[in-house]
Amino acid sequence: MALSRTESDLKSLKDQIGCETIVAELADTAAAKRAAEEAGEIDLLVNNAAVAILQPFLETTSEGWDTTMAVNLRAILVVSQVIAKRMIEREVAGSIVNVSSMAAFQGLRDLAAYCTSKAGLDQLTKVMAVELGGHRIRVNSVNPTVVLTEMGKRAWSNPAKGKPMLERIPLGRFAECDDIASVVCFLLSDSAAMLNGLALPVDGGFRAT
C-alpha cells in the first residue's frame, strides 16, 4: 500500500509492483489520518515522505518552516499513530522504519528547517521505540547521506555545494535508492528482531571522516 500526494508517481509504482495506492496530501493532518485509516491492516510501515525547501537561515520563512515540519515530522506522527494502534489491537509484532537523514547529525547550509525536522524525527523514533516496544512493535530510523532521488539531485547538483560533500564520503559516491531500500527492508525483517530505537547512518563513511 503506497501513499503519496502525486498520482502520477503512484501510477508508475503500481505499474511496477502492483501495489494498492492512496492519493493524500500528508501535510494536511486530517488527510494524513484519513489515508492511514484507509490503508487498513498494516504490519510493516515505512515513513518516507519528505520535502527539502532550500532557504538560508536568515531567509527561512515561516511558511517554508511550517511546511517542512508538517510533512517531515507531523505526518509521521499522525500516520504512525493510526497504524500502530491497529497493530496493537491485532496483537501484531510490527515494524516501523522512519526515513531520516544524516542532516539530523550535521548542520547544512540552506537547510535549517530540513535539518531540524530530521533531528526531531530521530527523537520521535526513540520515543516511539520506547513506548511501542512493549507491544512488540520495533521502530528505527535510517539516516542516509545524499540519495540520488529527484529531490536529492535538485538539492546537490550544484558542484560548489555537492563536491565538498562528496569529498567527505570515503566510498566516493552518493547513495542510490537501492542502497537505502535494502537497509530499510532489513530493518523491517525478522533478521533485525533485536534492533529498536536506532538512528542508522547509511552514509558511505561520512561520519568517520
What can you tell me about this protein's structure?
The chain is of the alpha/beta class and 209 residues long. It has one domain: NAD(P)-binding Rossmann-like Domain (Rossmann fold). Strands 3-4-5-6 form a four-stranded parallel beta sheet, sandwiched between helices. Strands 1-2 form a two-stranded parallel ribbon. Helix 3 runs parallel beside helix 4. The termini are far apart. The model has no long low-confidence stretch (mean pLDDT 95).
Protein traits:
12% strand, Rossmann fold, two-stranded parallel sheet, 209 residues, four-stranded parallel β-sheet, alpha/beta
Structural class: alpha/beta
Q: Superfamily at the CATH H level? A: NAD(P)-binding Rossmann-like Domain
Q: Per CATH, what is the topology?
A: Rossmann fold
Distance between the termini: 39 Å
* Oligomer type: single chain
Tally the helices: 7
What is this structure, in a nutshell?
The protein has 209 residues and is α/β, with parallel strands linked by helices. It is built from seven helices and six strands.
